[in-house]
Amino acid sequence: MTQQLVERPRVDRSALSFVPELVYFEPAALDYPKGRRIYDWVNKEGIPYRMTTSHNRITNLPGDTELEQYKIAKRTLVVGLRKTLKFDTSKPSAEYAIPIATGCMAHCHYCYLQTTLGAKPYIRVYVNIDDILDAAQGYIDERAPEITRFEAACTSDPVGLEPITGSLRELIEYMGKQPLARLRFVTKFHHVDSLLDANHNGHTRIRFSVNSKYVIKHFEPSTSRFEQRIEAAAKCAAAGYPIGFIIAPIIWHDGWEEGYAELIAELDKALPKDARENLTFELIQHRFTSTAKNVIEKRYPKTKLEMDIEKRKYKWGRWGQGKYVYPDEQADALRLFISERVFHHFPEGKIEYFT
Ligand code: 0TT
Ligand code: SF4
């Protein structure tokens, strides 16, 4: 497939969720229009950059301690090619994870990327979107006539990066033309303006991750504020996108009932009437692996995140490491309480799953 991308994403500094402090380019990335565009932008902004033969070779990130290097990595962008075109599965949200970026500039304490990205927490964006879309087409064809859903937020927060890459817009427009494909992604950012006039054809569901005031305040540094997320959700709905909310991670904290009741009441207050059609909710309880617990305690030593394995239930993983979730009694209480509040305020809403 030929490169069709010629349009510049609307980059305007005030609209940026983040400006990297350091950028690495894999040389091959500069053979692609998206790579060149990012390169020109980096030069225009005067952002320092280096060339690297492969992201795997990045071993000399600035910073004296591991923690400093981690913080710098979170502000480092690597522009390269996606080589693995075999997609991971993404149950329960979709059939497949579609990779357009890996890593995120936010600092949510509970984030599973802390462990899944291991020693490489920098942010990678992929410029060979056409290869990725070709691979997606293979999966769509394979499942036809069933619909295939792709989740674009498994390994990053793609909305936070959209002002730099414009990749989501391309995915949205591609899936808009596919009778048998749907796209979905979730975000804690509000930078949706460049997506509003995309030809989505109702095939992309944009979900906003929301939480109680306590969780947002203590565990979600460097993300957009709650009010900004809701405002962005209303804009997406007005642009005809199906929208949804992911309440995740649901955390059992002092006053959680009031906290989650307030969250859903605030959503009800803030969301315009016409944004409620075809609204979905996904409920995900907090979970952690023992590796995650170690990493989080190192990176956010003062975190209030409770990760006491004595208070949790161990859930065996199908492949790999198991996770600690809430014991059934607590998980049921969270699920029942929050579901009841959702149906009270949004009788037309649909809860897709609690996991
Ligand atoms: O805290 C993370 C948990 O949240 C994971 O168990 C997945 C889950 N999750 C995240 C979810 O239930 N719904 C979502 O929409 C997610 C944002 C997307 C997602 C991610 C998913 O649905 N299923 C997944 O398996 N993932 C992750 O993608 C896990 C894995 O690390 C990666 C690739 O499969
Ligand atoms: Fe992780 Fe999402 Fe927070 Fe980014 S916004 S750090 S991807 S939980």
From TrEMBL:
Listed CDD domains: Radical_SAM (cd01335)
One Gene Ontology term, aspect cellular component: endospore-forming forespore
Source species, domain of life: Bacteria
EC primary class: lyase
Single GO molecular function: DNA photolyase activity
Matching Gene3D superfamilies: 3.40.50.12110, 3.80.30.30
SUPFAM superfamilies: Radical SAM enzymes
Alphabetical keyword list: Lyase
EC id: 4.1.99.14
Keyword Lyase: yes
Entry keyword Lyase: yes
InterPro entries reported for this sequence: rSAM, rSAM_sf, SPL, SPL_Bacilli, SPL_firmicutes
NCBIfam families the UniProt entry points to: photo_TT_lyase
UniProt-listed PANTHER family: SPORE PHOTOPRODUCT LYASE, SPORE PHOTOPRODUCT LYASE-RELATED
The protein's name: Spore photoproduct lyase
Organism this protein belongs to: Paenibacillus soyae
Gene behind this protein: splB
